[in-house]
Amino acid sequence: MTMRTGRRRGLFRTAGLLAAGLAAALTISACGGGSSNPLDTSTSAAASGPASGSAAAGGGKIVVGSANFPESALLANIYAAALTKAGLDASTNLNIGSREVYIKAIQDGSIDLVPEYSGVLLQYFDPTATAVSADDVYAALVKATPQGLVVLEKSAAEDKDAVVVTKATAEANNLTSIADLAPVASTFILGGPSEWETRPTGVPGLKEKYGLTFKEFKALDAGGPLTLNALLSDQVQAGNLFTTDPAIPANDLVVLEDPKNLFAAQNVLPLIRSDANNAQVTEALNAVSAKLDTATLTELLTKVAVDKQDSAQVAQEWVAQNLS
Question: What's the whole-model pTM score?
């Protein structure tokens, strides 16, 4: 199971956006973090702030929580907007903190549900888990989820590690997947966080699963501006970014497919307390998962983190346009 940085369950990553030579800093994550994110200016889809959770099954208010990074707050706002559209009384309590904190908040009833990522949530509930594919991770997660909690349907949207190249490099070398690097890896410099040099999901894993031996590994950062700048300036020919990073579409970069699942699946899905769930809640949230994919999440996150649009408004507009 891949983890981004030395921290077991979280990271705030900074990704530089370069267009026409200009870099702008972002801080985004898929796995939760431990401190407040200054770029998160999102608001709730209904009423945000401290709340005491309540059971949807009893007709009460549903409180949607989030971790303290923009992508999680955006997803929470989407869930709240979808529930509201379905006729339920939903509010948000955003930027709660790390996974340890917000899962406790679900369990004690302070909130009712939270957006999560399948791979890291499975690892949280079962540190011995070895599943990596989307379906296998989800199946294992359903079994590992503690009594009193339930995960609903997974979406196609993922925020996970990726090996990324420029469009020019991809076209020049016919690259669509990591496996396609085999003929050229010996001439390529690979860039990524320093821990990639020894981590099973870094250089050793690329060699073991794909038979790749790169010309050199250059220690840079965890999907941040150093890696992005190095890719764009051809200092490295392949680098580690994250799949919902707005820098990828902004710079026309190519995410190489991972057919051998070196990086465990990280599908976005709702984690909800069982007594806050019912058929109406499940239907509303599963409808979100059915429509949400990585490209869509990236586009929405760009509006929030780059264009500085209000997170709740972005969520409400997407729900209005995509959910019947």
Answer: 0.82
